[in-house]
UniProtKB/TrEMBL annotation:
This is ROK family protein. It holds the Pfam family ROK. It comes from the Bacteria. Belongs to the ROK (NagC/XylR) family.
């Protein structure tokens, strides 16, 4: 068993080393990076070649004598399915190992047994996947706005539906694929840490603002690929307006902003119409709605900065689609004159995933858990 664990650990370390580089590499390159012996690296490289994880690229140039063979990582050696759930819609995607989306689907949630509905539509999505991809699918990651409590063996898809975690095993048997489930903020953290530019940070915090408001923190505490953890917190239920006893979710969820804007401007069909048109966005009513919303948002962002002191505070979720319109106002509200935060305005950013971070993170979870 000990030898098997060492072997698996070596494979994970080498996989981690090649996953995070776009450059070609040789066996001598990997021995330097990993501090492993040439025979150990050669054995793992041969295994990776057999599994199509890497491909031969070219012969290295320069020097004298026999040149080393170069290899490159193959991001399409396997695929994974991501599922994102809220009370209105279920989204499905198929990605490769670096997050490239090959297939997607969105369905409206219907008022019936949720597990049956989810299973049926997941099976339908799997049937629609091209066989050349399906043969290499290694699992399904599901992002939920509620919690997955591994200690007490239950999960909440929303505030009203709680299930025994054994239901996941039943779905696995039905679709014949393993399933990973996590809170949507943790899934967003995974996407930001693994395939976005923040993977080098030792710590950062994500606030995921969709129909629910969730938060997660990421901490890296060592040099090994597995030396990190992330943990979600339920900020949705925190009081942000004590006088009126309003919770964070009552004030800054994406649903709240969307409903207020569409109620104020009934001719609009979407928030994109509002933000892209200055006539609406900079009208008296439009400014009033945004100022109220961002003031509440500023309160929770300040609390997160004081609580976690992150190197980055990344705003994810549906709201991040409109980050370019909101960032300057958010920063002006949070970083008032003579503020006492340890870091400056560069700390707060909107995610580049434009609302897709949680579902991409969900799809990455089987890959990360299996290989890193």
């Amino acid at each position: 068993m000990y030898q098997k664990e060492i072997k698996q650990g070596n494979e994970n370390i080498i996989f981690h080393s090649i996953y995070f580089t776009e450059d070609s590499f040789s066996i001598p390159d990997l021995t330097k990076i990993t501090n492993m012996t040439f025979p150990t690296v050669k054995r793992v490289v041969n295994e990776f070649l057999e599994k199509d994880i890497i491909v031969e690229w070219t012969l290295s140039t320069g020097g004298v004598g026999r040149r080393a063979v170069k290899y490159k990582y193959n991001p399409d050696f396997c695929y994974s399915i991501g599922v994102s759930i809220n009370e209105e819609k279920i989204k499905f995607i198929l990605i490769n190992t670096i997050g490239k989306i090959f297939q997607s689907k969105i369905i409206d949630t219907e008022n019936e047994n949720f597990i049956d509905f989810l299973t049926k539509n997941l099976k339908d999505f799997i049937k629609e996947i091209d066989e050349k991809y399906l043969a290499k699918v290694i699992g399904v990651g599901i992002s939920i706005p509620g919690i997955y409590n591994k200690e007490d063996h239950f999960l909440e898809f929303n505030n009203t539906d709680r299930y025994e975690s054994a239901v996941i095993k039943e779905i696995e048997q039905d679709i014949n694929l393993p399933i990973w489930v996590e809170n949507e903020a943790n899934m967003s953290i995974l996407a930001e840490a693994i395939i976005n530019k923040y993977k080098e940070l030792e710590d950062f915090t994500v606030i995921n603002i969709s129909n629910k408001v969730t938060c997660s923190t990421f901490h890296k505490f060592g040099n090994k690929s597995e030396d990190y953890f992330f943990k979600a917190s339920r900020v949705h239920h925190m009081i942000v307006d004590y006088e009126n006893q309003k919770k964070v979710g009552d004030c800054i969820s994406f649903k709240v902003l969307k409903n207020e804007i569409l109620r104020a401007f009934p001719k609009l069909n979407s928030l994109e119409d509002f933000f892209s048109n200055k006539t609406y966005r900079e009208s008296k009513k439009g400014k009033e709605i945004l100022n109220k919303y961002l003031t509440y948002m500023g309160i929770i962002l300040k609390n997160l900065l004081f609580t976690y002191n992150p190197k980055k505070l990344i705003i994810c979720g549906d709201l991040s689609q409109f980050g370019s319109y909101l960032l300057d106002d958010v920063l002006n509200i949070v970083y008032e004159k003579n503020h006492i935060f340890y870091r400056g305005k560069e700390t707060i950013i909107f995610s580049n995933f434009k609302g897709s971070s949680s579902i991409i993170g969900a799809a990455l979870f089987p890959i990360v858990d299996n290989l890193m």
